[in-house]
Protein backbone atom coordinates (compact mmCIF):
# COMPACT_ATOMS: atom_id res chain seq x y z
CA UNK A 1 0.00 0.00 0.00
CA UNK A 2 1.51 3.30 -1.13
CA UNK A 3 1.30 6.02 1.52
CA UNK A 4 0.70 9.48 0.10
CA UNK A 5 1.79 12.29 2.40
CA UNK A 6 0.67 15.88 2.88
CA UNK A 7 -2.68 15.42 1.14
CA UNK A 8 -5.77 17.15 2.50
CA UNK A 9 -8.21 14.25 2.17
CA UNK A 10 -11.23 16.43 2.99
CA UNK A 11 -10.33 18.93 0.29
CA UNK A 12 -9.74 16.10 -2.17
CA UNK A 13 -13.17 14.61 -1.41
CA UNK A 14 -14.76 18.04 -1.90
CA UNK A 15 -12.99 18.57 -5.22
CA UNK A 16 -14.20 15.18 -6.44
CA UNK A 17 -17.78 16.03 -5.39
CA UNK A 18 -17.81 13.13 -2.92
CA UNK A 19 -17.99 15.00 0.39
CA UNK A 20 -21.48 16.15 1.33
CA UNK A 21 -20.92 17.30 4.91
CA UNK A 22 -18.71 16.65 7.93
CA UNK A 23 -18.81 17.48 11.63
CA UNK A 24 -16.18 19.84 13.02
CA UNK A 25 -14.31 19.87 9.73
CA UNK A 26 -11.41 22.00 11.01
CA UNK A 27 -10.78 19.75 14.00
CA UNK A 28 -11.08 16.64 11.84
CA UNK A 29 -8.59 18.04 9.34
CA UNK A 30 -6.14 18.79 12.13
CA UNK A 31 -6.33 15.25 13.50
CA UNK A 32 -6.01 13.69 10.04
CA UNK A 33 -2.95 15.85 9.42
CA UNK A 34 -1.30 14.82 12.69
CA UNK A 35 -1.94 11.07 12.88
CA UNK A 36 -3.45 7.99 11.30
CA UNK A 37 -6.95 7.16 12.46
CA UNK A 38 -9.39 4.26 12.44
CA UNK A 39 -12.67 4.92 10.64
CA UNK A 40 -15.68 2.84 9.70
CA UNK A 41 -18.60 2.55 7.34
CA UNK A 42 -21.58 0.27 7.81
CA UNK A 43 -23.59 -1.68 5.23
CA UNK A 44 -26.75 -3.56 6.16
CA UNK A 45 -27.16 -7.06 4.74
CA UNK A 46 -30.44 -6.65 2.88
CA UNK A 47 -29.40 -8.41 -0.35
CA UNK A 48 -26.76 -10.86 -1.53
CA UNK A 49 -24.78 -8.13 -3.25
CA UNK A 50 -23.79 -4.51 -2.92
CA UNK A 51 -24.84 -2.18 -5.74
CA UNK A 52 -23.34 0.90 -7.35
CA UNK A 53 -24.94 3.13 -4.72
CA UNK A 54 -22.38 1.69 -2.28
CA UNK A 55 -19.36 2.42 -4.45
CA UNK A 56 -18.79 5.97 -3.23
CA UNK A 57 -18.41 4.77 0.37
CA UNK A 58 -15.95 2.07 -0.73
CA UNK A 59 -13.99 4.57 -2.83
CA UNK A 60 -13.89 6.98 0.12
CA UNK A 61 -12.57 4.26 2.42
CA UNK A 62 -9.91 3.47 -0.17
CA UNK A 63 -8.79 7.11 -0.30
CA UNK A 64 -8.35 7.07 3.48
CA UNK A 65 -6.51 3.75 3.43
CA UNK A 66 -4.09 4.97 0.76
CA UNK A 67 -3.11 7.73 3.19
CA UNK A 68 -2.37 5.20 5.93
CA UNK A 69 -5.68 5.27 7.83
CA UNK A 70 -7.35 2.00 8.85
CA UNK A 71 -10.81 1.29 7.38
CA UNK A 72 -13.27 -0.93 9.23
CA UNK A 73 -16.32 -2.25 7.42
CA UNK A 74 -19.25 -3.11 9.61
CA UNK A 75 -21.76 -5.46 8.01
CA UNK A 76 -25.03 -5.20 9.89
CA UNK A 77 -26.07 -8.75 10.64
CA UNK A 78 -28.09 -7.45 13.58
CA UNK A 79 -29.35 -4.13 12.23
CA UNK A 80 -30.45 -5.93 9.06
CA UNK A 81 -32.98 -7.76 11.23
CA UNK A 82 -34.42 -4.38 12.24
CA UNK A 83 -34.38 -2.33 9.05
CA UNK A 84 -33.24 1.26 8.64
CA UNK A 85 -36.32 3.48 8.18
CA UNK A 86 -34.30 6.44 6.89
CA UNK A 87 -36.27 8.11 4.10
CA UNK A 88 -38.13 4.92 3.20
CA UNK A 89 -41.82 5.14 2.28
CA UNK A 90 -42.62 1.81 3.90
CA UNK A 91 -41.14 -0.81 6.17
CA UNK A 92 -38.20 -2.72 4.74
CA UNK A 93 -38.56 -6.42 4.08
CA UNK A 94 -36.91 -8.37 6.90
CA UNK A 95 -34.94 -11.37 5.72
CA UNK A 96 -34.25 -14.66 7.55
CA UNK A 97 -31.04 -14.89 9.58
CA UNK A 98 -29.76 -17.73 7.36
CA UNK A 99 -29.95 -15.45 4.32
CA UNK A 100 -28.19 -12.67 6.19
CA UNK A 101 -25.34 -14.99 7.22
CA UNK A 102 -24.91 -16.12 3.61
CA UNK A 103 -24.96 -12.55 2.35
CA UNK A 104 -22.30 -11.62 4.91
CA UNK A 105 -19.90 -14.07 3.24
CA UNK A 106 -20.73 -12.95 -0.30
CA UNK A 107 -20.48 -9.22 0.40
CA UNK A 108 -17.26 -9.71 2.35
CA UNK A 109 -15.72 -11.24 -0.78
CA UNK A 110 -16.91 -8.29 -2.87
CA UNK A 111 -15.37 -5.76 -0.51
CA UNK A 112 -12.05 -7.61 -0.71
CA UNK A 113 -11.75 -6.33 -4.29
CA UNK A 114 -11.75 -2.69 -3.19
CA UNK A 115 -9.62 -2.50 -0.04
CA UNK A 116 -6.30 -3.94 1.08
CA UNK A 117 -6.63 -6.54 3.84
CA UNK A 118 -2.93 -7.32 4.05
CA UNK A 119 -0.93 -4.10 4.29
CA UNK A 120 0.18 -3.95 7.88
CA UNK A 121 -1.22 -1.63 10.53
CA UNK A 122 -3.84 -0.08 8.27
CA UNK A 123 -5.14 -3.36 6.84
CA UNK A 124 -8.91 -3.24 6.40
CA UNK A 125 -11.10 -5.48 8.54
CA UNK A 126 -14.72 -6.60 8.26
CA UNK A 127 -16.89 -7.21 11.32
CA UNK A 128 -20.51 -8.15 11.97
CA UNK A 129 -22.53 -6.25 14.58
CA UNK A 130 -24.47 -9.44 15.28
CA UNK A 131 -21.41 -10.42 17.33
CA UNK A 132 -22.27 -7.99 20.12
CA UNK A 133 -26.00 -7.53 19.72
CA UNK A 134 -27.19 -11.15 19.69
CA UNK A 135 -26.12 -11.74 23.28
CA UNK A 136 -26.90 -8.32 24.69
CA UNK A 137 -29.31 -8.11 27.62
CA UNK A 138 -32.27 -5.88 26.77
CA UNK A 139 -32.35 -4.42 30.28
CA UNK A 140 -28.68 -3.44 29.95
CA UNK A 141 -29.38 -1.82 26.60
CA UNK A 142 -32.36 0.19 27.81
CA UNK A 143 -30.68 1.23 31.05
CA UNK A 144 -27.19 2.03 29.73
CA UNK A 145 -27.95 3.15 26.19
CA UNK A 146 -31.64 4.00 25.84
CA UNK A 147 -31.53 6.55 28.65
CA UNK A 148 -29.32 8.80 26.53
CA UNK A 149 -31.90 9.20 23.75
CA UNK A 150 -34.70 11.75 23.84
CA UNK A 151 -37.82 10.53 22.04
CA UNK A 152 -38.89 14.09 21.19
CA UNK A 153 -35.54 14.72 19.52
CA UNK A 154 -35.68 11.44 17.61
CA UNK A 155 -39.17 12.20 16.33
CA UNK A 156 -37.94 15.50 14.90
CA UNK A 157 -35.45 13.78 12.60
CA UNK A 158 -36.60 14.16 9.00
CA UNK A 159 -36.26 10.45 8.30
CA UNK A 160 -38.67 9.65 11.14
CA UNK A 161 -40.95 12.66 10.81
CA UNK A 162 -41.75 11.87 7.18
CA UNK A 163 -42.99 8.41 8.10
CA UNK A 164 -45.17 9.73 10.93
CA UNK A 165 -46.77 12.81 9.38
CA UNK A 166 -47.39 11.83 5.76
CA UNK A 167 -50.84 10.27 5.39
CA UNK A 168 -49.78 8.52 2.19
CA UNK A 169 -46.89 6.71 3.90
CA UNK A 170 -47.01 3.80 6.31
CA UNK A 171 -46.35 4.62 9.94
CA UNK A 172 -43.22 3.47 11.70
CA UNK A 173 -42.94 0.49 14.03
CA UNK A 174 -41.12 0.58 17.36
CA UNK A 175 -38.65 -1.88 15.86
CA UNK A 176 -37.68 0.55 13.10
CA UNK A 177 -37.76 3.45 15.54
CA UNK A 178 -35.07 1.69 17.59
CA UNK A 179 -32.71 1.39 14.61
CA UNK A 180 -31.18 4.76 15.43
CA UNK A 181 -30.14 3.47 18.87
CA UNK A 182 -28.54 0.35 17.45
CA UNK A 183 -26.46 2.18 14.85
CA UNK A 184 -25.41 4.73 17.45
CA UNK A 185 -24.23 1.93 19.72
CA UNK A 186 -22.25 0.43 16.80
CA UNK A 187 -20.19 3.62 16.69
CA UNK A 188 -19.75 3.59 20.48
CA UNK A 189 -18.70 -0.08 20.47
CA UNK A 190 -16.15 0.46 17.70
CA UNK A 191 -14.83 3.56 19.41
CA UNK A 192 -14.19 1.64 22.62
CA UNK A 193 -12.78 -1.55 21.05
CA UNK A 194 -10.92 -0.20 18.00
CA UNK A 195 -10.54 3.51 18.82
CA UNK A 196 -12.66 4.43 15.78
CA UNK A 197 -13.12 8.20 15.68
CA UNK A 198 -14.79 8.70 12.28
CA UNK A 199 -17.92 7.22 10.75
CA UNK A 200 -18.71 7.73 7.08
CA UNK A 201 -21.97 7.06 5.23
CA UNK A 202 -24.32 8.35 2.58
CA UNK A 203 -25.98 11.71 3.19
CA UNK A 204 -29.18 9.93 4.24
CA UNK A 205 -27.26 8.57 7.26
CA UNK A 206 -26.46 11.98 8.75
CA UNK A 207 -29.04 11.71 11.52
CA UNK A 208 -27.88 8.26 12.59
CA UNK A 209 -24.23 9.36 12.54
CA UNK A 210 -24.93 12.44 14.67
CA UNK A 211 -26.76 10.25 17.20
CA UNK A 212 -23.70 8.03 17.47
CA UNK A 213 -21.42 11.03 17.97
CA UNK A 214 -23.71 12.33 20.74
CA UNK A 215 -23.84 8.92 22.43
CA UNK A 216 -20.04 8.61 22.55
CA UNK A 217 -19.78 12.09 23.98
CA UNK A 218 -22.26 11.20 26.75
CA UNK A 219 -20.93 7.80 27.78
CA UNK A 220 -17.19 8.11 27.04
CA UNK A 221 -16.69 11.89 27.09
CA UNK A 222 -14.86 11.65 23.77
CA UNK A 223 -15.00 13.75 20.64
CA UNK A 224 -15.55 11.81 17.43
CA UNK A 225 -16.55 12.77 13.91
CA UNK A 226 -18.94 12.03 11.09
CA UNK A 227 -18.63 12.44 7.34
CA UNK A 228 -21.28 11.86 4.67
CA UNK A 229 -20.98 11.44 0.93
CA UNK A 230 -23.21 12.62 -1.87
CA UNK A 231 -25.85 10.12 -2.88
CA UNK A 232 -25.81 8.74 -6.43
CA UNK A 233 -28.92 10.00 -8.18
CA UNK A 234 -30.69 8.36 -11.14
CA UNK A 235 -32.13 10.23 -14.12
CA UNK A 236 -35.53 10.48 -12.43
CA UNK A 237 -34.04 12.14 -9.35
CA UNK A 238 -34.25 9.09 -7.08
CA UNK A 239 -31.19 7.46 -5.55
CA UNK A 240 -29.69 4.20 -6.71
CA UNK A 241 -30.76 1.46 -4.34
CA UNK A 242 -31.10 -2.28 -4.22
CA UNK A 243 -34.85 -2.06 -3.58
CA UNK A 244 -35.39 0.14 -6.63
CA UNK A 245 -36.08 -1.12 -10.15
CA UNK A 246 -33.13 -1.71 -12.45
CA UNK A 247 -30.53 -1.74 -9.69
CA UNK A 248 -26.99 -2.20 -10.98
CA UNK A 249 -25.35 -4.81 -8.77
CA UNK A 250 -21.67 -5.49 -8.16
CA UNK A 251 -22.25 -9.25 -8.32
CA UNK A 252 -21.60 -10.40 -11.89
CA UNK A 253 -24.39 -12.97 -11.60
CA UNK A 254 -26.99 -10.29 -10.84
CA UNK A 255 -25.66 -7.70 -13.29
CA UNK A 256 -23.30 -9.24 -15.80
CA UNK A 257 -20.16 -7.28 -16.80
CA UNK A 258 -21.54 -6.41 -20.26
CA UNK A 259 -24.71 -4.92 -18.79
CA UNK A 260 -22.57 -3.16 -16.18
CA UNK A 261 -20.38 -1.71 -18.95
CA UNK A 262 -23.45 -0.61 -20.90
CA UNK A 263 -24.92 1.15 -17.87
CA UNK A 264 -21.93 3.49 -17.60
CA UNK A 265 -21.67 3.82 -21.39
CA UNK A 266 -25.20 5.25 -21.43
CA UNK A 267 -24.82 7.78 -18.63
CA UNK A 268 -26.34 11.09 -19.85
CA UNK A 269 -24.04 13.94 -20.85
CA UNK A 270 -25.54 16.03 -18.05
CA UNK A 271 -23.94 13.89 -15.33
CA UNK A 272 -21.11 11.95 -16.98
CA UNK A 273 -18.41 14.42 -15.94
CA UNK A 274 -19.73 14.47 -12.40
CA UNK A 275 -19.48 10.67 -12.32
CA UNK A 276 -15.97 10.71 -13.82
CA UNK A 277 -14.93 13.03 -11.04
CA UNK A 278 -16.62 11.03 -8.27
CA UNK A 279 -15.93 7.44 -9.27
CA UNK A 280 -12.52 7.56 -10.95
CA UNK A 281 -9.09 8.79 -9.92
CA UNK A 282 -8.44 10.54 -13.23
CA UNK A 283 -6.90 13.97 -12.84
CA UNK A 284 -9.21 16.90 -13.51
CA UNK A 285 -7.24 17.95 -16.60
CA UNK A 286 -7.88 14.54 -18.20
CA UNK A 287 -11.61 14.76 -17.42
CA UNK A 288 -11.81 18.31 -18.78
CA UNK A 289 -10.14 17.23 -22.01
CA UNK A 290 -13.25 15.15 -22.76
CA UNK A 291 -15.73 18.04 -22.48
CA UNK A 292 -15.83 18.43 -26.26
CA UNK A 293 -16.52 14.74 -26.86
CA UNK A 294 -20.08 14.38 -25.64
CA UNK A 295 -23.02 12.66 -27.36
CA UNK A 296 -20.68 9.96 -28.65
CA UNK A 297 -20.47 6.42 -27.28
CA UNK A 298 -17.41 5.54 -29.33
CA UNK A 299 -13.98 5.02 -27.84
CA UNK A 300 -13.08 8.68 -27.41
CA UNK A 301 -16.21 9.65 -25.46
CA UNK A 302 -16.31 10.47 -21.72
CA UNK A 303 -18.89 7.70 -21.31
CA UNK A 304 -16.49 5.16 -22.79
CA UNK A 305 -13.74 6.36 -20.47
CA UNK A 306 -16.09 5.99 -17.49
CA UNK A 307 -17.40 2.57 -18.54
CA UNK A 308 -13.86 1.27 -19.06
CA UNK A 309 -12.66 2.45 -15.66
CA UNK A 310 -15.69 1.22 -13.71
CA UNK A 311 -15.91 -2.20 -15.36
CA UNK A 312 -12.22 -2.87 -14.82
CA UNK A 313 -12.46 -1.73 -11.18
CA UNK A 314 -15.46 -3.94 -10.35
CA UNK A 315 -15.08 -6.91 -12.71
CA UNK A 316 -11.44 -6.97 -13.76
CA UNK A 317 -9.50 -6.72 -17.01
CA UNK A 318 -10.73 -9.98 -18.55
CA UNK A 319 -14.42 -9.10 -18.18
CA UNK A 320 -13.71 -5.59 -19.45
CA UNK A 321 -12.21 -7.02 -22.65
CA UNK A 322 -15.24 -9.28 -23.12
CA UNK A 323 -17.65 -6.40 -22.50
CA UNK A 324 -15.90 -4.24 -25.07
CA UNK A 325 -15.95 -7.07 -27.58
CA UNK A 326 -19.70 -7.60 -27.12
CA UNK A 327 -20.34 -3.87 -27.45
CA UNK A 328 -18.38 -3.80 -30.69
CA UNK A 329 -20.22 -6.83 -32.07
CA UNK A 330 -23.69 -5.50 -31.27
CA UNK A 331 -23.25 -1.87 -32.23
CA UNK A 332 -20.45 -1.58 -34.78
CA UNK A 333 -19.62 -4.90 -36.47
CA UNK A 334 -21.43 -6.23 -39.55
CA UNK A 335 -23.30 -9.34 -38.43
CA UNK A 336 -22.24 -11.12 -41.62
CA UNK A 337 -18.67 -10.96 -40.32
CA UNK A 338 -19.51 -12.69 -37.02
CA UNK A 339 -17.77 -15.99 -36.36
CA UNK A 340 -19.46 -18.86 -34.59
CA UNK A 341 -17.33 -18.07 -31.53
CA UNK A 342 -18.66 -14.52 -31.62
CA UNK A 343 -22.20 -15.86 -31.34
CA UNK A 344 -21.16 -18.19 -28.53
CA UNK A 345 -19.67 -15.21 -26.67
CA UNK A 346 -22.95 -13.33 -27.07
CA UNK A 347 -24.88 -16.38 -25.90
CA UNK A 348 -22.99 -16.36 -22.60
CA UNK A 349 -23.33 -12.65 -21.96
CA UNK A 350 -26.58 -11.17 -23.30
CA UNK A 351 -30.27 -11.94 -22.91
CA UNK A 352 -31.11 -15.14 -24.82
CA UNK A 353 -33.72 -17.82 -25.31
CA UNK A 354 -33.38 -21.43 -26.46
CA UNK A 355 -36.00 -22.85 -28.85
CA UNK A 356 -36.74 -26.03 -30.73
CA UNK A 357 -35.73 -25.79 -34.37
CA UNK A 358 -39.21 -25.47 -35.84
CA UNK A 359 -41.41 -22.77 -37.35
CA UNK A 360 -42.26 -19.71 -35.25
CA UNK A 361 -43.86 -16.48 -36.30
CA UNK A 362 -42.41 -13.15 -35.19
CA UNK A 363 -45.18 -12.14 -32.71
CA UNK A 364 -44.71 -15.43 -30.85
CA UNK A 365 -40.95 -14.93 -30.69
CA UNK A 366 -41.40 -11.40 -29.35
CA UNK A 367 -43.51 -12.78 -26.52
CA UNK A 368 -41.10 -15.64 -25.78
CA UNK A 369 -38.19 -13.19 -25.71
CA UNK A 370 -40.15 -11.02 -23.24
CA UNK A 371 -39.93 -8.04 -25.57
CA UNK A 372 -43.69 -7.76 -25.24
CA UNK A 373 -46.53 -9.45 -23.37
CA UNK A 374 -49.20 -10.03 -26.05
CA UNK A 375 -49.66 -10.58 -29.77
CA UNK A 376 -51.51 -7.29 -30.06
CA UNK A 377 -48.55 -5.39 -28.60
CA UNK A 378 -46.16 -7.43 -30.75
CA UNK A 379 -48.00 -6.37 -33.90
CA UNK A 380 -47.79 -2.73 -32.84
CA UNK A 381 -44.03 -3.05 -32.30
CA UNK A 382 -43.54 -4.63 -35.73
CA UNK A 383 -45.66 -2.02 -37.51
CA UNK A 384 -43.72 0.77 -35.79
CA UNK A 385 -40.51 -0.51 -37.40
CA UNK A 386 -38.99 -1.26 -33.98
CA UNK A 387 -38.05 -4.90 -34.62
CA UNK A 388 -34.87 -6.13 -36.29
CA UNK A 389 -33.75 -9.66 -37.17
CA UNK A 390 -30.02 -9.98 -37.70
CA UNK A 391 -29.98 -6.17 -37.91
CA UNK A 392 -32.54 -6.09 -40.73
CA UNK A 393 -35.75 -4.21 -40.03
CA UNK A 394 -38.86 -6.41 -40.23
CA UNK A 395 -42.26 -4.81 -40.81
CA UNK A 396 -44.16 -7.96 -41.81
CA UNK A 397 -46.43 -8.99 -38.93
CA UNK A 398 -46.76 -12.48 -40.44
CA UNK A 399 -43.02 -13.05 -40.66
CA UNK A 400 -41.98 -16.70 -40.19
CA UNK A 401 -38.44 -17.67 -39.16
CA UNK A 402 -36.63 -19.91 -41.65
CA UNK A 403 -33.19 -21.49 -41.89
CA UNK A 404 -32.06 -18.40 -43.77
CA UNK A 405 -32.42 -16.41 -40.51
CA UNK A 406 -30.29 -18.85 -38.49
CA UNK A 407 -26.58 -18.04 -38.55
CA UNK A 408 -24.42 -21.17 -38.34
CA UNK A 409 -27.75 -23.05 -38.19
CA UNK A 410 -28.27 -22.03 -34.56
CA UNK A 411 -28.24 -18.25 -33.99
CA UNK A 412 -30.63 -15.39 -34.67
CA UNK A 413 -30.05 -11.90 -33.27
CA UNK A 414 -33.33 -10.20 -32.37
CA UNK A 415 -33.40 -6.50 -31.56
CA UNK A 416 -36.07 -4.12 -30.28
CA UNK A 417 -35.26 -0.48 -30.89
CA UNK A 418 -31.60 0.49 -30.67
CA UNK A 419 -30.37 -1.21 -27.52
CA UNK A 420 -32.56 -4.19 -26.55
CA UNK A 421 -31.10 -7.47 -27.79
CA UNK A 422 -32.05 -11.11 -27.51
CA UNK A 423 -30.03 -13.93 -29.03
CA UNK A 424 -32.14 -16.90 -30.12
CA UNK A 425 -30.42 -20.26 -29.96
CA UNK A 426 -32.08 -22.88 -32.15
CA UNK A 427 -31.48 -26.36 -30.75
Structure explained in plain terms:
The protein has 427 residues and is α/β, with parallel strands linked by helices. It folds into three domains: 9-229, Rossmann fold, CATH 3.40.50; 257-332, Orthogonal Bundle (Tyrosyl-Transfer RNA Synthetase); 349-426, Structural Genomics Hypothetical 15.5 Kd Protein In mrcA-pckA Intergenic Region, Chain A, CATH 3.10.290. Helices cover 43% and strands 13% of the residues. It has a six-stranded mixed sheet with strand order 1-6-5-2-3-4, sandwiched between helices. Strand 3 (70-76), helix 4 (97-111) and strand 4 form a beta-alpha-beta unit. Helix 10 (179-194) packs across helix 11 (206-220) and helix 17 (362-368) packs across helix 18. The radius of gyration is 25 Å and the shape is elongated. The model has no long low-confidence stretch (mean pLDDT 89).
The best one-word shape is elongated
- Strand sequence of the main sheet, in spatial order? 1-6-5-2-3-4
Mean pLDDT: 89
Distance between the termini: 51 Å
CATH class of the largest domain: Alpha Beta
Q: So, CATH architecture of the largest domain?
A: 3-Layer(aba) Sandwich
Write the layout of secondary structure elements.
Layout: H1 9-15, E1 19-22, H2 25-34, E2 38-44, H3 55-66, E3 70-76, H4 97-111, E4 125-128, H5 130-133, H6 138-145, H7 151-155, H8 158-165, H9 174-177, H10 179-194, E5 196-202, H11 206-220, E6 225-229, H12 257-265, H13 269-279, H14 284-288, H15 302-331, H16 340-349, E7 352-355, H17 362-368, H18 375-383, E8 387-389, E9 392-393, E10 411-416, E11 420-426
Parallel strand pairs: 2-3, 2-5, 3-4, 5-6, 7-11
Antiparallel strand pairs: 1-6, 8-9, 8-10, 10-11
Helix pairs in contact: 10-11, 12-15, 13-15, 15-16, 17-18
Amino acid sequence: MIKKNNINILKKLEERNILYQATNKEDLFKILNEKKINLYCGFDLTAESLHIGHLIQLITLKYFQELGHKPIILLGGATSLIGDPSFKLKKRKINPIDNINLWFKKISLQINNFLDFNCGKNSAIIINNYEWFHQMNILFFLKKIGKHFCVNHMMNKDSIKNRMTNNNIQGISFTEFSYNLLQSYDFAYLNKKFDVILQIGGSDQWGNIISGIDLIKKIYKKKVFGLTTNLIIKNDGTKFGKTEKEAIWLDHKKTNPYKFFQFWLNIPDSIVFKFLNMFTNYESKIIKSFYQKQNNIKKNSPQYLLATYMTKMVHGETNLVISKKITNLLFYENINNFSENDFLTLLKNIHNISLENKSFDLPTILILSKFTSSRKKAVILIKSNSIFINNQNISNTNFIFTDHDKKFHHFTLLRKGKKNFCLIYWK
